[in-house]
Design brief:
This protein is an alpha/beta fold. It contains 21 helices and 37 strands.
């Protein structure tokens, strides 16, 4: 995460990662607006390019070739990426309501989340057919179909409902790929049967008759059964019924009919068309609310009715970007006039395509190559991203006139830009703090006498009779741009020390640093971060009892945690109890250090970062309890010192040696690729000094996993030694509890005369 050099004055929130929004992100990455922050709310970290989807289905491209990595693009743009689903709007308070996180405030809002084929009007369609959009969900179903066709002997019938360009192109791509698969297996490709349904008497109704004739010829030559004037009226499991009473059995039903917008838009009060899409003016602003923009399939231009085609979303990107920039400055946005005719290049599954524009139509292999050249050129704009060079000049700090501000906001902006005080003058203002914390609801505990809601100077907690107090503290700056998710990781990371000792959490005191800025921005940032943290603390029955919040250049958060454990040394799970013969168990994969170093350099794939974050928010609480139940003799949680550092901390006080199996180490996706590229955490150098603890370091230094034993972890898993006769059952139990990557990574050995306690095995 790169801290901005100026306070945030305005927030532009982008709902969806569609073709128009990726253009906005790229533009802001190349030409940022000081004081203006972008936030993207999207359910997926990869944005599929619709123009290349048929080529992906046909097998001409791999996944990465047809998907824009939204995570990398957001880092390039300096935007926050919130992985969540928008479910509503609070237009009075200008907030986007999300399914799994606090509402997200906006000054300007843009919606470009695409549309979904309307299946709700046909009984059974939503349950028994797969819609082509959202594409991420369709891709999962498509991969499952690929696997099923390979393992299923005999006939497979696929039905596609919708005979527009999208439906026809998708059917031909699926047929081409599946026939190739069967041929590669030595099976008869004619085992595949394809049906195409349309409620009209022609296919591709928005294209000219010459283009339709060409596709009629292709479909006929490839044995596709075309059902014309056959509106599907009901779908059951493996069966379609049409208005004429015809019944067709199918193993897979794909829905590619006219698209409609998300249902939650109905409750926003925005003017919508018959398909639920947002009605917008030529400026791409909602006719109901000038602070809300919309583009792509979810938008309906009232003065220019458009087909739901990706070309328009792509073309709307630049004018949307310009109008967002103008509006945030308080200037009048400019009208956009879409073209009346456009060129469509429609593939036929194989490397052949047909061009359609107005009355014109022609085809050939060269048309496919032309289409491929255009598509790959578009994708390169978002795949080739240059990170900011070290030592580059910082952005100019904004003056209050950079964006449109009220007089009160202008005063706050001047104050935020000015030299800030230190000492107690660096505290966050009482009003901002009370508003943010007033929305939090920490768990109630009987042993908390004075807590967060009390006005006293310190918290007071009781230590129950027969219990001992466990103390731990941790603090670090944000490494991701989502304060809510960062709060969850920070709290989870700090609680790890308590769980590793075999204790239960009792209370937490927070210390936070937030960058200065407009009061509303600081308040929301603090609220988002502490909401995420409090969700984790409450789930652990750990009461947030107080803390301190100050201003600083970077967002940071930490906690002092108090835990409780039986006042009996035998009940404390420590690092010094390892015994020869024990098995070393690790509950989570490693690699967070290298992955987030790569993320900052635009070198990590979004799905790698997403998977790492999912691992980091998994609590170690149940894992620690399971290890205790299976007789763990020693335990620690993996954090900044890395796997080797923490293992050394365990072997030396235990008076044992250990053998570590590099091949067995569970790794986060992409970790090995990142270290192979020479990308490591800034703490790696300090951790590498522990190589002196390795007995055979020279023999193993070239192993591809060797660098990862030094990789610092954030919210890592538990490293424990378990008696050999209980290890297998312990691993199975941990996997059942939600630690699927749990494995044995080595064993504890009797101490030798060698100075180096650790031996590596490859």
């Amino acid at each position: 995460m790169q801290a901005p050099d100026q306070p945030i004055l305005r927030d532009i929130v982008l709902v969806g990662g569609g073709h128009s929004h990726v253009a906005v992100l790229k533009s802001f990455g190349m030409r940022p607006m000081p004081g203006v922050r972008l936030t993207v709310i999207c359910t997926d970290v990869h944005t599929p390019y619709s123009g290349m989807l048929p080529g992906y289905i046909a097998g001409h491209y791999d996944f990465d070739a047809v998907h824009i990595d939204l995570s990398r693009l957001a880092v390039f743009a300096g935007a926050r990426l919130y992985r969540d689903e928008a479910v509503g709007l609070d237009r009075i308070n200008r907030k986007v309501l999300c399914r799994n996180r606090p509402p997200v405030p906006y000054d300007l809002l843009s919606i470009n989340m695409g549309a979904t084929p309307q299946a709700h009007g046909v009984p059974g369609a939503a349950e028994h057919a797969v819609a082509v959009k959202p594409i991420a969900r369709f891709n999962d179903r498509w991969l499952a179909l690929l696997q099923r066709v390979q393992s299923h002997p005999g006939t497979t019938t696929v039905a596609v409902v919708g005979a527009g360009a999208g439906g026809v192109e998708l059917l031909l791509a699926m047929q081409y790929r599946l026939r190739k698969v069967l041929q590669s297996l030595g099976r008869n490709p004619d085992e595949l049967v394809f049906h195409l349904f349309t409620d009209r008497d022609v296919i591709l109704p928005t294209h000219n008759s010459g283009v339709r004739r060409r596709f009629d010829t292709v479909l006929s030559a490839r044995g596709v059964v075309v059902h014309r004037q056959a509106a599907v009226t009901q779908v059951t499991h493996g069966r379609l019924l049409t208005a004429s009473g015809a019944v067709v059995d199918a193993d897979e039903i794909v829905w590619v009919t006219r698209a409609g917008a998300a249902a939650w838009l109905q409750d926003t009060g925005l003017a919508l068309d018959a398909d639920g899409c947002i009605q917008v003016l030529d400026t791409l602003q909602s006719v109901s609310d000038p602070s809300i923009f919309a583009a792509g399939d979810v938008a309906c231009m009232v003065n220019h009715p458009l087909e739901k085609a990706g070309v328009f979303a792509v073309r709307q990107g630049p004018p949307l970007t310009e109008n967002l920039r103008l509006s945030v400055q308080g200037k009048a946005p400019k009208p956009y006039h879409p073209q009346r005719k456009w060129l469509a290049l429609i593939s036929t599954g194989d490397r052949y395509a047909i061009a359609s524009r107005g009355w014109l139509g022609f085809g050939g292999a060269w048309v496919w190559r032309w289409k491929d050249h255009i598509d790959q050129g578009f994708m390169r704009k978002f795949q080739v991203l240059a990170p900011m060079q070290a030592g580059a000049a910082p952005q100019q700090a904004p003056s209050p006139s950079t964006v449109a501000l009220t007089s009160e906001e202008s005063l706050q902006a001047i104050s935020a830009i000015a030299m800030r005080c230190g000492g107690c003058g660096a505290k966050v203002g009482a009003t901002v703090l009370s508003r943010a914390l007033g929305q939090l609801h920490p768990v109630d505990r009987d042993d908390v006498v004075v807590g967060l809601k009390d006005p006293d100077d310190a918290a007071v907690v009781r230590v129950p009779p027969g219990m001992a107090m466990v103390h731990s503290v941790d603090f670090f700056r944000a490494f991701i741009d989502d304060p809510y998710l960062f709060g969850k990781v920070a709290a989870n990371h700090t609680l790890g020390d308590i769980w590793a000792m075999g204790a239960q959490a009792q209370s937490a005191t927070a210390i936070a640093t937030v960058p200065p800025g407009l009061e509303s921005k600081v308040e929301d940032l603090l609220f988002q971060m502490m909401t995420g943290a409090l969700e984790v603390l409450n789930a652990a029955n750990c009461a947030l009892v107080g803390g301190h919040t100050g201003e600083g250049k970077e967002l940071a958060l930490g906690f002092a945690i108090n835990g409780l454990i039986a006042d009996d040394p035998a009940q404390i799970l420590r690092k010094n109890g390892m015994r020869p013969g024990d098995v070393l168990i690790l509950t989570k994969p490693i690699g967070t250090g290298t992955l987030f170093a790569a993320h900052a350099r635009l070198a990590a794939k979004g799905r790698w970062i997403d998977a790492a974050l999912q691992s980091m928010v998994v609590s170690n609480q149940q894992g620690a309890q399971c290890l205790r139940e299976h007789g763990a003799t020693a335990c620690t949680d993996l954090t900044g010192f890395g796997l080797l550092g923490h293992l050394v901390e365990m072997t030396r006080p235990s008076g044992v040696d250990a053998e570590l199996d590099l091949a067995a180490l569970p790794l986060l996706d992409g970790a090995q690729e990142c270290v192979a590229a020479g990308i490591v955490s800034s703490l790696q150098g300090a951790n590498v000094r522990l190589r002196r603890a390795l007995r055979n370091q020279e023999a193993m230094v070239s192993h591809p996993r060797y660098p990862l034993i030094f990789d610092p972890q954030t919210a890592g898993g538990l490293l424990a030694s378990v008696p050999a006769d209980r290890a297998e059952a312990c691993i199975a139990a941990l996997r059942q509890l939600g630690y699927p990557h749990t494995v044995a990574i080595g064993r504890v050995l009797a101490q030798t005369d060698a100075l180096e306690p650790i031996t590596l095995r490859g």
